Amino acid sequence: LRPITLSPFPVERVKELADKGVSFISVEMSNGQLLQDVQFAALRKEDTHLVNRMGGNLIELKHVLAKIYEIAGFEDENLDTSKRSEEKASPNIID
After folding, report:
1. Which one of 3, 29, 31, 90 is separated from 38 by 20 to 30 angstroms, measured CA to CA?
2. Helices then strands (H, E): number in the chain?
3. Are 18 and 11 in contact (CB under 8 A)?
4. Is the dihedral of CA 2, 17, 60, 7 positive or negative?
5. Count of CB atoms within 10 A of residue 42's CB?
6. Using the 8-state DSSP alphabet, how is residue 3 labeled?
7. Model pLDDT, residue 87
8. Continuous H helices in the chain
9. H-run or E-run covering 12
């Protein structure tokens, strides 16, 4: 789920996906305020995860991929996305 706007927040869509067992990753350049909205809408915290950076530090693709691998149960200590193009490395998971 990739909302275009956050107001109004897509509570019903998040609930619908959560009922299907979807895990959520909130990717934020903040301290995780949106994560709280997702947790509230999903009605559970165990399937909501945060990837964030603050202080002007940019989120890199490798950080998001590492979280996806962690959630999926993969163990890849050598996760190196520096040689991949973002287009090839990005999984097609946008709803």
Report:
1. 90
2. 4, 2
3. no
4. positive
5. 20
6. -
7. 44
8. 11-19, 33-42, 61-72, 86-89
9. helix 11-19
Beta bridge partners of 26: 50
80's CB contacts (< 8 A; 6+ apart) are 62
Average pLDDT over residues 56-66: 93
Residues 24, 46: Cα–Cα separation, whole Å: 10
Reduced to 3 states, what is the DSSP secondary structure of residue 48? strand
Residue 59 CA: distances (Å) to CA of 52, 55, 56, 62: 7, 11, 9, 8
Question: For the whole model, what pTM was predicted?
Answer: 0.71
Chain mean position to CA 93: 10
Q: Is the pLDDT of residue 23 over 90?
A: yes
